[in-house]
């Protein structure tokens, strides 16, 4: 057989087909890339904002924590873990850690108990609609006040010449007024009480929403089985509210551990460091002692503790 002869006239057509195929493939690739990149284009402003306001400052603070006293010195040098050792062995930091643990634990437990109690009261059928509305308005008021207003109100009320001491002395509970926020024996508990009072309405509203989402058929079935009101609460209400209660508890631990404004405007961490928290300790290290390196190390430690709580919160949400 004779070998096939090359048709030179067909070469331009072959080249054109190949070029068209390459153009088609390239067009498809561009469309695919554009389609894939479109979501990132939409969220790019948020990513840029988060990077500028969060990621970059966090990275800078972490880098500061491994150097000597930054910002106030022109050429700081690396000191390794010396700042972390200094912070973790500082008696003031250990006292702040202890106070923070007491503060957030007592606040979270009280928020859950009070929020559940008031939510159940507002959800009961024993009260009329008008009465529930009035109570809701009254109970939600603490949540509407700003931190500055709350601090001023309670500093006046807890003053030796304030309303609280007047009522207690009039009722015969004490002989003379007490400066609740300046007495080392009462300052931490008074501050915790203020935080509880200011935060429980949010728990009340959240738990009330959870209560109203529980099906009445469950209570009817429990009543038919002869369950008492307590057994209904224990076997129906609490299991149905468990996801809400756990989520709210973890969130409150995170929020309360970062509380600063209320503490600073009421006690400032005093007296004698009995109300010193991790937030106020870090602030004083940076802006009172100008020890920005140790303040950065303290901030990183607080960040790690908060990230642990955030991890459990995200895990609970994914399980739900």
UniProtKB/TrEMBL annotation:
GO cellular component: plasma membrane
UniProt keyword Repeat, yes or no: no
UniProt entry tagged with the keyword Cell membrane: yes
CDD domains: TM_PBP2
Pfam families tied to this protein: BPD_transp_1 (PF00528)
Matching SUPFAM superfamilies: MetI-like
Similarity-based family: Belongs to the binding-protein-dependent transport system permease family.
Record-linked PANTHER family: ABC TRANSPORTER PERMEASE PROTEIN (PTHR30193), INNER MEMBRANE ABC TRANSPORTER PERMEASE PROTEIN YCJO (PTHR30193:SF37)
UniProt-recorded name of the protein: Sugar ABC transporter permease
């Amino acid at each position: 057989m004779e070998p096939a002869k090359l048709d030179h006239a067909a070469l331009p057509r072959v080249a054109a087909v190949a070029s068209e195929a390459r153009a088609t493939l390239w067009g498809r690739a561009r469309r695919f890339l554009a389609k894939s990149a479109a979501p990132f284009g939409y969220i790019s402003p948020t990513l840029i904002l988060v990077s500028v306001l969060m990621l970059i400052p966090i990275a800078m603070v972490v880098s500061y924590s491994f150097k000597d006293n930054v910002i106030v010195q022109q050429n700081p040098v690396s000191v390794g873990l010396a700042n972390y050792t200094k912070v973790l062995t500082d008696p003031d930091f250990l006292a702040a850690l202890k106070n923070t643990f007491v503060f957030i634990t007592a606040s979270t437990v009280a928020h859950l108990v009070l929020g559940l109690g008031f939510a159940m009261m507002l959800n009961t059928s024993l009260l009329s609609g008008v009465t529930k509305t009035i109570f809701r308005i009254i109970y939600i008021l603490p949540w509407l006040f700003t931190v500055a207003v709350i601090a001023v109100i309670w500093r006046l009320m807890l003053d030796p010449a304030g309303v609280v001491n007047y009522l207690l002395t009039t009722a015969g509970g004490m002989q003379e007024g007490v400066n609740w926020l300046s007495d080392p024996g009462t300052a931490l508990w008074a501050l915790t009480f203020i935080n509880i009072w200011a935060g429980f309405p949010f728990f009340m509203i959240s738990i009330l929403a959870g209560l109203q989402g529980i099906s009445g058929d469950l209570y009817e079935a429990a009543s038919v089985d002869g369950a008492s009101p307590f057994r209904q609460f224990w076997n129906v209400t609490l299991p149905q509210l468990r996801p809400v209660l756990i989520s709210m508890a973890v969130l409150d631990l995170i929020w309360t551990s970062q509380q600063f404004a209320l503490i600073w405007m009421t006690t400032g961490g005093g007296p004698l460091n009995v109300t010193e928290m991790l937030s106020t300790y870090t602030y004083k290290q940076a802006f009172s002692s100008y020890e920005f390196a140790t303040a950065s190390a303290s901030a990183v430690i607080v960040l790690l503790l908060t990230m642990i709580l955030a991890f459990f919160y995200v895990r609970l949400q994914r399980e739900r």
